[in-house]
């Protein structure tokens, strides 16, 4: 089948279709988490493993920032580093996630050490950082477009977890409040960049593949959580094990 050059709005529609069919809000672990059907240890495992992903977002953004060709682009992308790392006076997303982990009953030092994360979590997140480091700027920007779908999942996550877990408070989930405005701002810029610069069939196919890859990164992390902490419950050696926590 011959692939033709898509109009910018057609490309956007294809990108959004990837989100509609491959975003991790469809994963069974996600459904259990949001529907209040996990126990505290399982929620802790999610928070602990997800911290590694959150902590590496500014690392991957820094690798891309170094390759952006103009001051305008670097200023735009630098804002993401501040959002996640903070500015020294206001805590960023990484620090807020650490507070979330503490709020669900984890030792912040254990979480921050990343020593107890699942091997698959580390492999998936590192693969994402390497993808952004090694692929074209266009592909790296396109891989961030999962942010187009995050406001819906965040709203569902906050309401579902507050309703489903009596031991979780709004303060525990304070990480998500700034993301409701940050993520749309970030994705609007990235989408505009992709629609402008994906101007050949080859580049458009690279962009679509980059977003599919990012969805796979997020999905594979939940696969690992489900296998280790839901069914069949095979916790790898050295990984966080709720059954052994005091």
From TrEMBL:
UniProt keyword terms in alphabetical order: Oxidoreductase, PQQ biosynthesis
Query: One Pfam family of this protein, by short name?
Result: TENA_THI-4
Pathway in which this enzyme or protein is active:
Cofactor biosynthesis; pyrroloquinoline quinone biosynthesis
Q: Name one GO biological process term.
A: pyrroloquinoline quinone biosynthetic process
GO MF terms held by the record? pyrroloquinoline-quinone synthase activity
Domain named Thiaminase-2/PQQC: residues = 13-223
Q: What is its EC number?
A: 1.3.3.11
Q: Which reaction does it catalyse?
A: 6-(2-amino-2-carboxyethyl)-7,8-dioxo-1,2,3,4,7,8-hexahydroquinoline-2,4-dicarboxylate + 3 O2 = pyrroloquinoline quinone + 2 H2O2 + 2 H2O + H(+)
Membership in a protein family = Belongs to the PqqC family.
Known function: Ring cyclization and eight-electron oxidation of 3a-(2-amino-2-carboxyethyl)-4,5-dioxo-4,5,6,7,8,9-hexahydroquinoline-7,9-dicarboxylic-acid to PQQ.
Which NCBIfam families does this one have? PQQ_syn_pqqC (TIGR02111)
Q: Which protein are we looking at?
A: Pyrroloquinoline-quinone synthase
Q: Per the UniProt entry, what species is this protein from, by scientific name?
A: Caenibius tardaugens NBRC 16725
* Taxonomic classification: Bacteria, Pseudomonadati, Pseudomonadota, Alphaproteobacteria, Sphingomonadales
């Amino acid at each position: 089948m011959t692939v033709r050059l898509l109009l910018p709005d057609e490309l956007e529609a294809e990108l959004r279709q990837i989100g509609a069919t491959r975003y991790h809000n469809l994963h069974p672990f996600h459904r259990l988490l949001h529907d209040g059907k996990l126990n505290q240890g399982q929620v802790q495992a999610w928070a602990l493993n997800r911290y590694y992903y959150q902590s590496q977002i500014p690392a991957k953004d820094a690798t891309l920032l170094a390759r952006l060709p103009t001051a305008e682009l670097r200023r735009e992308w630098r804002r993401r580093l501040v959002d996640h790392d903070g500015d020294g006076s206001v805590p960023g997303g990484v620090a807020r996630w650490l507070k979330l982990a503490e709020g669900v009953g984890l030792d912040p030092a254990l979480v921050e050490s990343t020593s107890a994360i699942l091997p698959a979590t580390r492999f998936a997140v590192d693969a994402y950082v390497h993808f952004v480091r090694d692929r074209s700027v266009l592909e790296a920007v396109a891989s961030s477009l999962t942010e187009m779908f995050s406001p819906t999942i965040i709203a569902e996550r906050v309401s579902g977890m507050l309703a489903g877990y009596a031991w979780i408070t709004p303060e525990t989930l304070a990480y998500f409040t700034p993301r409701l405005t940050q993520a749309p701002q970030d994705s609007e810029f990235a989408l505009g960049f992709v629609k402008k610069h994906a101007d050949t069939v080859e580049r458009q196919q690279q962009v679509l593949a980059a977003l599919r890859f990012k969805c796979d990164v997020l999905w594979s992390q939940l696969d690992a959580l489900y296998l280790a902490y839901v069914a069949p419950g095979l916790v790898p050696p050295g990984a966080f094990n709720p059954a052994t926590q005091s």
